[in-house]
Predict the 3D structure of the following.
Amino acid sequence: MAKYALITGASRGIGRACAIELAKQGLNIIINYYSRDDLAEDVKNTVVEYGVVAELLKFDVSDSAQIEAAIENWELTHPDDYIDVLVNNAGIRRDSLLIFMQNQQWHEVLNTTLNGFFYLTRRLLKNMMTKRHGRIINMASLSGIKGLPGQVNYSAAKAAIIGATKALAQEVAPRKVTVNAIAPGFIETDMTGDLPVNELKKMIPMARFGRPEEVASLVGFLSSDNAAYITGEVISINGGLYT
Ligand code: NAP
């Protein structure tokens, strides 16, 4: 039986770095993404260099029907394998002051981060419970702890993920499935590409943005056997910005 890690939003940024880190640890990798076939293919080519299997699984995490179809099809073609590690990483920003925020901006962010977590985790949890082993890692954010102006939708979604992490961790701990959240500060990816970097750096004690690989190494640790007794935690990785 081969173990796989599924990383959502793995075509770019933090998800890409997580796919590579978990491949280094010997896990077979399922690369989920939304639209960027070219970038996902590139991640796949990089991952296989570590001697593991890499597969693309394109679906919209906010669409439960797409998730059901994709996972069902994967299970049919992998009768002897199972997904032991799930990294709920896919996320989007649709920033606006609340007073100007459109329904669509609110719903898109909640649907991707929160509903995406719910649909996919519920689907994969059953197998983890049966196998009595599993790792679920949810990408939250500093915004979900501190709240950031202009990001009421994003902050709400990330705070909700933190609550869900803590509740689910208690539900599934008896089956040796751990559930943790990571709360990055500012990380150098496309998502932060439009931000005033030099202004923001002045607020960060480490005086720099974090790198996707630095978040991925924490994902790697939480996925490992060494982290078997850590569950229900929210771990910040933010260069000292907020503790
Ligand atoms: P990114 O560079 O913008 O990449 C986003 C990834 O999510 C892409 O792979 C994208 O796929 C995928 N995605 C978006 N919507 C999706 C959907 N509906 N279904 C499936 N995949 C979808 O983002 P990032 O900066 O790496 O952020 C990754 C996670 O970390 C997010 O949850 C984000 O909120 C969180 N985070 C980031 C920072 C930061 O400073 N960067 C800080 C705190 C938390 P395509 O390439 O196909 O579009």
